[in-house]
């Protein structure tokens, strides 16, 4: 290392040093999820009861952009937001816990009188907006209506009104002898959620996804056959940008299953279909994006053809990588990583639970084959995660080509207990500690998972509980 | 071809389960889920396809068996002496000609064939015969050289008084084996027709192939009497629809006609008379013949389901 003579030179050296230090720190922060990282139990939220109330079933989980807030939506139309406590200065090794920050009723059950249909209040998706001021904003949607919620803190209140008592009763004006100026005084923190916008009546079919654009001004919402583009400020109008409804509904062959905007190209979005294809569209090409720019499709393996081929090839979730170069799709049995520059086939395929392929008949009978699993990337796109049955969830380390199966259960819920990798034995011989396919509990399914944008903290939703795991800090 | 090895349920159970799901979805909270019902309709379609294929194969097998029995009974009534003369003449004619003689390539042989079960077709004609045999009213002919070959066994020795040269893959007809004759067996009406210099003769029924051998070949064709060339099978999948169609009668007629026209182009004018005389009456009849049988057995559950 050269010693430079003038002050400027020395400064430059220091700068590069600090840069490399911070780089290595951030890498280790959101590092691999394979064998390098040991996952520990951190917290579990929700009732311990085995008897699950339908309204408590978690239907969506989402971290905000900083990872400080974690939102969940449930079948009862409620949204619960957890906030991470600031790191304890006395215990720098321990990451802050997530505690309830706000709870509110986002959607109520509605009745469509024209069609004689009940509209479920279940929250299908929550998407956070990036923070612009002190308040937080999120979009939540049920089958028909999207709402923009403002979550704000109030820690001061005005005191000293002239015409009002402290408890709110009005004073008799004749008793007022002096005037004073009301002042703000500190109070206990109160978190308020208020609906700022309601985006309604734009979807004939059930909304399955919403996605905020990187311009932070527009967002899209998709139902089975259409994709609409909204402006966050305008509620009475939306633009239809994709419409795959056939002229004759009897000719329907596929539906839209998931949609997402590109993380940094505000003109690009993708939508996946029930036929296992993904279409990438560029909004600059035309107003109506029925004609795709790219079509991602992998030819079907004819030797795997079965009665249920169409069902298991249907894509349940699509997610762009944070860097925007890749996208990940989840179908019933696998996770596929696609390079946006290659349409012919995925660059990586990971089998989530291939042992279920021989059980498709029974899974069809009990409706499990229709479960829509989600998937997520870690902060630096090196690891992907998705859920499975028996409260198992799987992580695939792309770089190290390793995968691990973990379980979210009350039994392994001791504080900072390291999670033991699980294994399912597909064949006849069952080794010790392995679980046979037939003893898997298909009622315990992990459909929704989320990964902190920077840290190795994950939120895993079982039926009605939310588990938070983090990596073991040494 | 759908791999059903993994499925513990048979097609019919799947169909009833699927119908139940569609019915239940109409009363589920939140309204009909389009995606789920679309997927269920795909299972329904696949199960129905599979069930129909199995049904046709079964029906065809039954037909084969009936034909064998019918023809065997009729053979018993024939004069064995006439047969021997014809066959000797045929052998002489055929064997005197070189293998490469163009005449041999003509459809002058008399053997009627149902699909060749064990033997791969060596010539285009044999190939076509193998594929065409499945069609309801297809007329097939074997090569002369096959007739002349020594055979290890005679299929229908048990049914017939005399043994006569038979190919080791298929049948021979009872009628004379002349090099300038073409004899055709109509599989549905059991009518044997001989075309001689453009002159049609109606002969007695020929002996079809042994039933046991036929099914092995038939598995190759999804629709039994309706599929012809193997490449037609993938095209013959029904449209992916949310509702189900009834059986594909009109399509079957097209298959038969196209199949015959293929034969015509290869075999030359010999078939023209056959086609013109039989096409109108037999083919359309056969198209419906098979379908009526099948439809009757399928029952109400094949009726169209309109979900939305």
UniProtKB/TrEMBL annotation, chain A:
**Cleaved signal peptide residues:** 1-24
Which SMART domains does the UniProt entry name for this protein? Answer: WD40
> Which keywords does the record carry?
Repeat, Signal, WD repeat
Q: Which PROSITE patterns match?
A: PR55_1, PR55_2
Q: Name one GO cellular component term.
A: protein phosphatase type 2A complex
| GO molecular function ontology, one term from the record | protein phosphatase regulator activity
**Domain of life (superkingdom):** Eukaryota
What InterPro entries would the database entry show? PP2A_PR55 (IPR000009), PP2A_PR55_CS (IPR018067), WD40/YVTN_repeat-like_dom_sf (IPR015943), WD40_repeat_dom_sf (IPR036322), WD40_rpt (IPR001680)
Q: Which family does it belong to?
A: Belongs to the phosphatase 2A regulatory subunit B family.
Q: How does it assemble?
A: PP2A consists of a common heterodimeric core enzyme, composed of a 36 kDa catalytic subunit (subunit C) and a 65 kDa constant regulatory subunit (PR65 or subunit A), that associates with a variety of regulatory subunits.
Write down what this protein is called: Serine/threonine-protein phosphatase 2A 55 kDa regulatory subunit B
Q: Which organism is it from?
A: Acipenser oxyrinchus oxyrinchus
TrEMBL record, chain B:
Q: Which domain of life is it from?
A: Eukaryota
Looking up Pfam families in the UniProt record yields: IER
Q: Which PANTHER family match?
A: IMMEDIATE EARLY RESPONSE GENE
Concerning its family, UniProt says:
Belongs to the IER family.
Q: What is this protein called?
A: Immediate early response gene 5-like protein
The beginning of the lineage is: Eukaryota, Metazoa, Chordata, Craniata, Vertebrata
């Amino acid at each position: 290392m050269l010693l430079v003579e003038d002050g400027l030179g020395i400064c430059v050296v220091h700068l590069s040093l600090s840069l490399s230090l911070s780089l290595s720190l951030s890498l280790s922060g959101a590092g691999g999820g394979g064998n390098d990282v040991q996952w520990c139990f951190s917290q579990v939220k929700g009732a311990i009861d085995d008897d699950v109330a339908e309204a408590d079933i978690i239907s969506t989980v989402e971290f905000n952009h900083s990872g400080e807030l974690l939102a969940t939506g449930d079948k009862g139309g409620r949204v619960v937001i957890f906030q991470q406590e600031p790191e304890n200065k006395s215990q720098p090794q321990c990451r802050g816990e997530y505690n309830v920050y706000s709870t509110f009723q986002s959607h109520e059950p509605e009745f469509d009188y024209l069609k004689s249909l009940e509209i479920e209040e279940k929250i299908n998706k929550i998407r956070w907006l990036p923070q612009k001021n002190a308040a937080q904003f999120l979009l939540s949607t049920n089958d028909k209506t999207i709402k923009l919620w403002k979550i704000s803190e109030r820690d001061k209140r005005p005191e000293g009104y002239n015409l009002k008592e402290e408890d709110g009763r009005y004073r008799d004006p004749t008793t007022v002898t002096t005037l004073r100026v009301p002042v703000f005084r500190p109070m206990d923190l109160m978190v308020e959620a208020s609906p700022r916008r309601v985006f309604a009546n734009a979807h004939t079919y059930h909304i399955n996804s919403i996605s905020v654009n990187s311009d932070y001004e527009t967002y899209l919402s998709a139902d089975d056959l259409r994709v609409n583009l909204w402006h966050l400020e305008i509620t009475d109008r939306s633009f239809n940008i994709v419409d795959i409804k056939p002229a004759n509904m009897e000719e329907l062959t596929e539906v839209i299953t998931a949609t997402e905007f590109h993380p940094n190209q505000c003109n690009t979005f993708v939508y996946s279909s029930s036929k296992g294809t993904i279409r990438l569209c560029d909004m600059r090409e035309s107003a109506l994006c029925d004609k795709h720019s790219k079509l991602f499709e992998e030819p079907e393996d004819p030797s795997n053809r079965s009665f249920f081929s169409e069902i298991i090839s249907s894509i349940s979730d699509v997610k762009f990588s944070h860097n925007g170069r890749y996208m990940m799709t989840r179908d019933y049995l696998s996770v596929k990583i696609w390079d946006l520059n290659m349409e012919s086939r995925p660059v990586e395929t990971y089998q989530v639970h291939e042992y279920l392929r021989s059980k498709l008949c029974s899974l069809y009978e009990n409706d499990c084959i229709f479960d829509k699993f989600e998937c997520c990337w870690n902060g630096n796109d090196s690891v992907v995660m998705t859920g499975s049955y028996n409260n198992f969830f799987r992580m695939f380390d792309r770089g190290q080509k390793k995968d691990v199966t973990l379980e979210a259960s009350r039994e392994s819920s001791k504080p900072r207990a390291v999670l033991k990798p699980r294994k399912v034995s597909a064949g006849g011989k069952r080794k010790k500690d392995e679980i046979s396919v037939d003893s898997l509990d298909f009622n315990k399914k992990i459909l929704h998972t989320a990964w902190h944008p920077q840290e190795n903290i994950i939120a895993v939703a079982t039926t009605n509980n939310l588990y938070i795991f983090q990596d073991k800090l040494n | 071809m759908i791999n059903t090895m993994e499925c513990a349920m048979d097609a019919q159970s799947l169909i009833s389960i699927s119908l139940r799901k569609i019915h239940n979805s109409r009363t589920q909270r939140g309204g009909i889920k389009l995606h789920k019902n679309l997927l269920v309709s795909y299972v329904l379609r696949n199960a129905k396809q599979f069930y129909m294929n199995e049904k046709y194969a079964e029906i065809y097998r039954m037909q084969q068996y009936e034909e064998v029995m019918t023809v065997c009974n009729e053979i018993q009534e024939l004069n064995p002496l006439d047969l021997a003369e014809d066959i000797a003449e045929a052998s002489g004619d055929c064997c005197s000609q070189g293998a490469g003689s163009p005449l041999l390539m003509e459809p002058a042989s008399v053997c009627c064939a149902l699909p060749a079960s064990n033997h791969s077709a060596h010539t285009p004609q044999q190939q076509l015969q193998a594929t065409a045999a499945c069609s309801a009213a297809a007329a097939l002919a074997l090569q002369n050289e096959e007739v002349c070959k020594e055979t290890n066994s005679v299929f229908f020795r048990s049914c017939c008084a005399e043994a006569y040269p038979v190919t080791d893959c298929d049948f021979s007809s009872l009628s004379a084996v002349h090099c300038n004759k073409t004899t055709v067996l109509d599989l549905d009406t059991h009518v044997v027709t001989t075309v001689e210099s453009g002159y049609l003769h109606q002969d007695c029924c020929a002996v079809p192939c042994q039933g046991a051998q036929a099914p092995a070949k038939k598995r190759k064709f999804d629709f039994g009497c309706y599929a012809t060339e193997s490449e037609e099978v993938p095209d013959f999948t029904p449209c992916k629809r949310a509702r189900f169609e009834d059986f594909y009668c009109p399509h079957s007629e097209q298959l038969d006609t196209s199949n015959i026209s293929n034969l015509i182009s290869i075999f030359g004018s010999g078939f023209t008379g056959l086609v013109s005389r039989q096409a109108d009456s037999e083919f359309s009849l056969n198209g419906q013949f098979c379908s009526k049988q099948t439809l009757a057995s399928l029952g109400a559950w094949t009726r169209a389901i309109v979900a939305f």
